[in-house]
């Protein structure tokens, strides 16, 4: 019984240390990686807007927005986190609207997201 309690204590301590180590290592993105993520996200949002304005179907627009949503996850910077979350919400609105066929709302949300990501890029470049 005593060794089982030791085992549980050891397992719990290992899990806590592992969780702390992961979150510490997850936040170590270099300047180049954050800058590339910002540029990639902006590029993908612009591609989504171009496709939308060119008359692409809703599935194509939704796929392009989904790519932008994935790319923006790599913008790991504590100073930009809240702004990234707000811009990400606009991408999510655009994605849902595109999937639902409301391309006007998708376009408005994409343009709003683009403005937010471009603002984030200016802030990041000026502070680094």
From TrEMBL:
<keyword id="KW-0732">Signal</keyword>
<feature type="signal peptide">
    <location>
        <begin position="1"/>
        <end position="26"/>
    </location>
</feature>
<protein>
    <recommendedName>
        <fullName>Soluble cytochrome b562</fullName>
    </recommendedName>
</protein>
């Amino acid at each position: 019984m005593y060794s089982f309690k030791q085992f549980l204590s050891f397992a719990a301590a290992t899990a806590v240390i592992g969780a702390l180590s992961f979150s510490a290592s997850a936040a170590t993105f270099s300047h180049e990686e954050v800058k590339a993520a910002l540029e990639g996200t902006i590029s993908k949002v612009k591609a989504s807007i171009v496709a939308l304005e060119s008359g692409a179907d809703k599935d194509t627009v939704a796929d392009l927005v989904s790519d932008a949503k994935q790319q923006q996850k790599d913008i790991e910077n504590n100073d930009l986190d809240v702004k990234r979350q707000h811009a990400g919400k606009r991408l999510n609105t655009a994605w849902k609207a595109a999937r639902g066929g409301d391309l006007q709302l998708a376009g408005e949300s994409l343009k709003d997201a683009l403005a937010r990501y471009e603002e984030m890029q200016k802030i990041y470049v000026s502070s680094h």
